[in-house]
Structure formats: structure tokens, C-alpha cells
Amino acid sequence: MEQRNNVTEFVLLGLTQSLQGQRISFVVFLFIYIVTMVGNLLVVWTVVVSPTLDAPMYFFLGYLSFMDAVFSTTVTPNMIINLLSVKKTISFQACMSQLFLEHLFGGAEIILLVVMAYDRYVAICKPLHYLTIMNQRVCILLLLLACLGGFLHTVVHLLFVYNLPFCGPNVIDHFMCDMYPLLKLACTDTYVIGLTVVANDGIMCVGIFVLLLISYGFILHSLKNLSQEGRRKALSTCGSHITVVVLFFIPCIFMYVRPPSTLPIDKSLTVFYTIITPMLNPFIYTLRNGEMKSAMKKLWIRKRK
After folding, report:
1. Rounded-to-integer distance, Cα 60 and Cα 64, Å
2. Which of 58, 126, 154, 175 could form a disulfide with 103 if both were Cys (CB 3.0 to 4.6 A apart)?
3. How distant is the alpha carbon of residue 205 from its chain centre?
4. Which residues contact 10 (CB under 8 A, 6 or more apart)?
5. What is the DSSP letter of 90?
């Protein structure tokens, strides 16, 4: 424990060491963060206010957008500030807090995507029993299950990392605190802990990704029993979900399903699933969803009046 106290803060090298690159990155990522917050909070506000969006699908979509907003906020603001800062440091406690929050909301979002796939399965394959199966109590329980899963996922990481001895150096070649960069700095053998990261993150990502693909495979197979209009609507909705799943999971799988190590491409992959994907999700879900677009238009017209 004394060794660990030798390091009270970490230095984040960030995305690039080029001053011009940092200025350009500042403008780009500030714009992305603003779009992310406006887009996701607009979806949350629309779902909460609009009486027509009372289906379970929109209940989960609202919370997915809320998680995206918070997930992005755990990473992006600190990265934006550091792009213009001379001293790019983060305290040990702040680093642990960031690690906890990013894996809490990231893990919860992964499980919520499974819940949303189950919701679509019930809606398409058992339409007559949909509202009975997916009642309000079940929806709340499934949401709490996603949050509990995210909490357990992140606690495992924190228990291992918090008690590691960090006695120097304290330079993290990244723009945020994450497991592999932190394990690289620990002054002890972290091979076993690295394997727990592979098990906790890697197997979780691959297992859930395969489960989601199988689920959507069943859903798409069942579309032959629907009318042409029903098939078109179901394909539009499932297409949005599958797009989000692929955008989120492919970088995660590449990051964590490998021997514990850090690679130069890790920064780009982390940018994609922590910053880019939360920005894209509102557009993917709203542009392909007629009911959501209609609800937004009605709220906009009502506000102008």
C-alpha cells in the first residue's frame, strides 16, 4: 500500500504530441461532444415528454441515450481539457473514478443492448403477448439487471487495480485511464490480473455479441410470417439495433480479446467506441424510426407555438 502512494497522479500523453494536432483535435472533439449531448438528451426528452412513445422499446431507448450521454461524459470532457493544457495530469483517485464510471456505464449499456434485442424478439415473434410479457414491472427489472451487471463488471476491475503498487513511472500513453495502460505501470507481475481482464471484458463482449447475433438471426428468420409492411418496419428497427451492436462490439472485441497488452491502435479504437459511437446512436435510432421522427416534429411544432 505504501508503494502505491508513491504515485499520487498520472500523466496522460493524450491522442497526439503535435501542438497543431492538439488544436485540431480540440475543435473536432468539442463539436462531437456537443452533438453527442444534444442528440442523446433530445432522445431522452422526446421519450419522456411524448405520450405516443410509451412502448417498452422507447423506454429502453431513452435509457440507452442517457447511458451514452454519461458514458461519453466520463471520457470526453477531460480529454478535451487536456488537449489545451500544458500539464496533462489526473489524480490517482480521479483516475480510479473514471475507470469505475466508464466500465459501469459501458457494461450496463452492453447488457441493455441484450435487453433491447429480447424486447424486439417478443414484439416480432409474440406480438399478441408483447404488452403482457413486457409490462412496466418487467421493463424496470430488466433495466435494474443491466445496471447491476455493469456494477459487478466494474467492481471486479476496481478491486484488482486499486490495490496494485504504482511506484513509478506514472506516464500513461493514452487519453484516459483504462485497464491495460494501468497494468503496464504497476510495479508487480500483472499477468494473472491481465487474464481476468480478458475474462471479464473479452469473454463478456464476445459472449454477448454472439448472443445478440443469434437473437437477431431468430428475429430475421421469423419475419417471413409477417406482412410486407410489418416486415419493412421490423427490418428498419432491427437494422438500427444491429448497426449499433456492430459499432460498439467490434472495437471492444479487438481491444480485449487478446493477450494483455497495449497497442498503438488502442487509442483510435477507444475513441471510436467511447466518443464516436455515442454520437452516432441517436442518429441511427431516430433517422430510421418514423415514430421517433414524428414525435420530435410534434414537440418542435408545439414548442414554436
Report:
1. 6
2. 154
3. 12
4. 89, 90, 91, 92, 95, 170, 171, 172, 177, 185
5. E
Residue 111 half-sphere exposure, CB side, CA atoms within 13 Å?
19
Hunting for cell 419475419 — which residue is that? 223
Phi, then psi, of 90 in degrees rounded to 5: -140, 135
pLDDT of 1: 40
9-12: strand order across its sheet: 89-91, 9-12, 171-172
- Is residue 22 a contact partner of residue 83, using CB atoms and an 8 Å limit? yes
Q: Give residue-wise pLDDT tens across range 4-61.
A: 457 888 999 988 888 899 999 999 999 999 999 999 999 999 999 988 888 898 999 9
How many other CB atoms sit within 10 Å of the CB of residue 141? 12
Please state the pTM of the whole predicted model: 0.89
Burial of 12 by CB count in 10 Å (0-12 exposed, 13-18 middle, 19+ buried)? Answer: buried
What is the C-alpha to C-alpha distance for residues 216 and 233, in angstroms, rounded to an integer? 15
In the block, cell 424478439 appears at 121
In which element (H, E) is residue 89 found?
strand 89-91
CA angle, residues 157, 182, 190, in degrees to nearest 5: 75
Q: Say which residue the cell 431468430 belongs to.
A: 218
Q: Within the chain, where are the H helices?
A: 2-5, 19-49, 56-73, 76-83, 92-125, 130-133, 136-162, 179-185, 191-197, 204-222, 228-256, 266-271, 277-287, 290-304
Distance CA 254, CA 277 (A): 16
